[in-house]
Amino acid sequence: MRTVTDPGERGLAVLEAENITLTYRSSGRGVENASLRVEAGEIFGLMGPNGSGKSTLLRVLTTAMVPDSGSLRVCGMDALKDRRRVRARLGIMVDRPTHYGDLSGWANAYFFARAYGLKEKKAEAALAELFEHFDLDDYRDDRAKTYSYGMSKKLALIEAMAHGPDLLLLDEPSLGLDYTSQLAYQRKVRELAAAGAAVLIASNQVDEMESLCDRVAFLHRGRIAAEGRPQELVESLRGLKRIEATLRNPVEYGPLAEVAGVRRVVPEGRDLVVHTEDRPGIVAAVVNAVVECGGDIVDLHVRRPNLEDVYVKLTGEALTDE
Ligand SMILES: Nc1ncnc2c1ncn2[C@@H]1O[C@H](COP(=O)(O)OP(=O)(O)OP(=O)(O)O)[C@@H](O)[C@H]1O
C-alpha cells in the first residue's frame, strides 16, 4: 500500500503550504499568507510580476528560508522541521543557476546526482539520458564556464531532474531557451509529471504556462490573488478583446478609457494594452482615440485574451514589463 511519503499517484498532496508569511526586515516586503497545494502528477504554475514574491515563496518551498509563520509539508513530512529528509525529495532550479566553472558540465551534474544519493551506475545512466534529451551530449566534457546562457540553464534542469525528485521546483526554467530546448524542457516536465512527480514552476511565460500547467496561481504584492485552471481563468474573459498598441513614444492616454466599450488600459513595457468589449468598430475607435491623444502607432495587434489579461483584470496591473 502506498503511504503519504510515497507519492507517484495522482490526488496525493506532495506539497502543502499553508499561510506562509515571510517579511524581509530591511524592506518590509516578502510574501503574506500564501497557501498552495500541489499533487503528485500535477504541474502547478506560479505567476506574478517582478517583485510580487515568486522567488521568496520558492525560497521557502525549497527550505532555503524559514518563514515567519505558516506550515509546509512535503510528501507528508514537516518541511520546517525535517529539512534534510525533505531536501532529498526535491529537485530545485533557482532563477540564476551557478556552476563550478572549471569543471565539465557532466562533472557538475554528476556531483549533484551523487550528492542526491544516486549510485555511480544509476547517476551515469540518468545523466546520459538527460544530456542526450537536452542535446548537450557534444558539450558534456566542456567546462561549464564555456556554456552559453541557454546551455547552463539546461545543465541546471538536468541537475534538478537527474535523481528523480518527487517535487520539482523551477524558477523561470525556460527563459533564454531556444525553440528546440524549450520543447525538450516541456516534454521532460510532462514526462516527469506523468510518472508521478509534482512540479511547481515560477514563470511569466504566459503561453507556455497556459499549455503546460494544470493549475496556476497569481501572486500580487506578496499575496495569492487567484488560482485556477488556465483554460477556465482565460475562459472567464470570454467576450473580451486584447488590443496591443506599440507607440513611437509614450503619451498620456487618459481619454482612451472614455471610449465606449473600453474596459481598461494598462501600459505593458513600451506597449499600451487595451481591454475592450468585442463589438464591431471597436478597434478603429481605439486607434482613433490613441491618435487623438497624440500617439503614433507603429505596431498594432488584436489578440484573444491570455493569462496576462486575467492578471490585468484581477489587479489592474501588468504581469510583465516587456
Ligand atoms: N533580500 C531581500 N531583502 C529585502 N527585500 C527583498 C529581498 N528579496 C526580495 N525582497 C523584496 O521582496 C519582494 C518580493 O521579491 P521577490 O524577489 O520574491 O519577487 P519576484 O516575484 O521573484 O520578482 P522577480 O520576478 O523580479 O524575480 C520585493 O518587493 C522585493 O523588493
From TrEMBL:
Keywords carried by this UniProt record: Antibiotic resistance, ATP-binding, Nucleotide-binding, Transport
What is the membrane topology listed in the Swiss-Prot or TrEMBL record? Peripheral membrane protein
CC terms in the record's Gene Ontology section:
plasma membrane
What InterPro entries does the annotation carry? Answer: AAA+_ATPase (IPR003593), ABC_transporter-like_ATP-bd (IPR003439), ABC_transporter-like_CS (IPR017871), ABC_transporter_ATP-binding (IPR050763), ACT-like_dom_sf (IPR045865), ACT_dom (IPR002912), P-loop_NTPase (IPR027417)
- Give any Pfam family that matches: ABC_tran
Gene Ontology process terms (BP) = response to antibiotic
Its chief place of residence is membrane
Q: Name one GO molecular function term.
A: ATP binding
Localization, per the record, is: Cell membrane
- Per the database record, which ranges form the ABC transporter domain? 15-246
All copies of the ACT domain together span 271-322
Q: State the family named in the UniProt similarity comment for this chain.
A: Belongs to the ABC transporter superfamily.
Question: Under what name is this protein listed?
Answer: ABC transporter ATP-binding protein
Source organism per UniProt: Rubrobacter taiwanensis
Q: What is the lineage of its organism?
A: Bacteria, Bacillati, Actinomycetota, Rubrobacteria, Rubrobacterales
